[in-house]
Amino acid sequence: MKNKRKDENYSVFLKHIEEDKNETSNFAKTLLILVLVVFVLVIIFVFSLNDEKTIEQLFGKDSFMSQKLIEFVESKSHRRKAEFGLPFMPRRQNILLLGVDSNGSDTDPWRGTRSDTIVLLNIDPNTRSVNAISVPRDSKVYLPAEYGVQKINAAHALGGIKLTKQTVEETLGVKIDRYIIVSDQAVSKLIDALGGVPIYVEKRMNYDDYSGGLHVNLNKGLNVLDGKNAIGYLRFRHDGLGDIGRTQRQQWFLRGLLEQIQTPQAIAKIPEMLNIATTYVKTDLSLYEMSQYAALAKSFDISKIEVATLPGGPNKKGAISYWILDPEKTQEVVNRLIYRYEPEATDKTFVAGIMYSPDKEKQAMQLKAELKELGFEVNCIGRGHLPHSQFVANSSAVSNEFFHWLKKKVPEIKHSQFVYDPNKFYCSDSDFVVILSGE
Question: What global pTM score does this model have?
Answer without folding.
Answer: 0.74
